[in-house]
Specification:
The chain is α+β, with helices and mostly antiparallel strands. The protein folds into two domains: 4-41 and 201-278, FAD/NAD(P)-binding domain; 48-197, no CATH class. It has helices at 12-23, 63-70, 85-96, 100-128, 146-161, 171-177, 199-212, and strands at residues 4-8, 27-32, 48-49, 139-143, 166-170, 187-191, 195-196, 216-219, 222-228, 232-238, 273-278. Strand 1, helix 1 and strand 2 (27-32) form a beta-alpha-beta unit. Helix 1 (12-23) packs parallel to helix 7 (199-212). The structure holds flavin-adenine dinucleotide (FAD).
Length: 287
């Protein structure tokens, strides 16, 4: 019998994990706390696939921007402020690594990772066989000031040194690339290796393909706790079947999942319920 794996979260990471697990023969259920199943960041980001973004955030001159982003809930680098020793340790490590030596060490690895990511997207788009707007036309970094353009031009030189096709364009050349748009720029850097796609369309197509391949989705189901047991991982979930059903059956994560009634929501425990999921061993049937 196929081994059963729960994936927590139907974002791009969860769905791609589900793709790989299914490919390797696992029985997969994706638990997603959003009721509609599509509130994830992955559905509404900018959709750019960027080998050119190989400079780590911990870099000289980027720390100020990174710190501003960390406090902005709408930024791509938001970190919920909280009193946490772990977070303080991470912050200290981040500041300590914001130096040129760290960038020189990390950049080739990040470039390799980014190129692998683009290759993976290309393969995925071909596998899906649906138009998700994947286009490999490059990325324009538009610059409003000479200083900004000089900075980007230095980045472009580094990118060229690492094998990317990065060119500095004048305002006229930018205009020729984007006719019909009036741009108040002094120039731009054009990295032709970058690509973009429609993230919402990609996620919808990915999910449809997973459903066709037998992956189950449980929207509105939040994982509220995990406990490692000897031969299983206990997963506490709160979902449509579980909410407010005190002491009743645990919500069902279908298929070969073993339920731990001892951990099910009981009187006084309010809303949570638990499932016990067999971990990479032949599943032993439902409760
Ligand atoms: C403004 C912005 C622009 C961006 N632009 C780009 C871009 O152009 N290109 C790019 O590559 N990246 C971009 N990113 C980053 C990219 O969107 C994220 O790195 C990526 O979406 C993260 O995917 P994920 O699956 O880890 O998380 P998410 O997309 O956040 O998915 C996580 C899912 O897990 C669910 N979940 C969380 N906790 C639980 C739980 N306890 N139980 C059940 N479900 C749970 C959530 O509801 C959510 O649906 C951008 C990010 C932002 C914010």
């Amino acid at each position: 019998m196929a081994r059963h794996v729960l994936v927590v979260g139907a974002g791009v990471v969860g769905l791609n994990a589900a793709v790989e697990l299914r490919r390797r023969g696992f029985d997969v259920t994706v638990l997603e706390r959003d009721a509609a199943g599509h509130a994830a960041t992955s559905h509404g980001n900018a959709g750019i696939v960027v080998p050119s973004h190989f400079v780590p955030l911990a870099a000289p001159g980027v720390v100020g921007q990174a710190l501003r982003w960390m406090l902005d809930p709408l930024s791509p680098f938001y970190v919920r402020p909280r009193a946490s020793l772990e977070l303080a340790r991470w912050g200290w490590g981040f500041l300590r690594n914001a130096n040129a030596a760290h960038v020189a060490r990390a950049a080739p690895l990040l470039l390799e990772l980014n190129l692998a990511s683009r290759r993976r997207y290309e393969a995925l788009v071909a596998e899906l066989g649906v138009d998700v707007g994947f286009t490999r036309r490059g990325l324009l970094m538009l610059c409003h000031t000479e200083r900004g353009l000089e900075e980007e031009a230095r980045g472009a030189a580094t990118a060229r040194g690492m094998g990317l096709d990065a060119r500095v364009l004048s305002a006229t050349e930018v205009g020729a690339l984007e006719p019909g748009i009036e741009l108040d720029v002094v120039g731009a850097v054009h990295v032709r290796d970058d690509a973009h796609l429609d993230p919402g369309a990609t996620m919808r197509a990915l999910r449809a393909r997973l459903e066709q391949n037998g992956v189950r989705f449980r929207n509105g189901t939040e994982v509220t706790g995990l406990r490692d047991r000897r031969d299983a991982v206990e997963v506490e979930v709160r979902g449509p079947e579980g909410t407010g059903v005190e002491g009743a059956d645990a919500p069902r994560v279908e298929a070969p999942t073993r339920w731990c009634s001892r951990a099910a929501a009981g009187p006084g425990r309010s809303r949570g319920s638990s499932a016990c999921v067999s971990r990479c061993s032949p599943a032993r049937g439902t409760r």
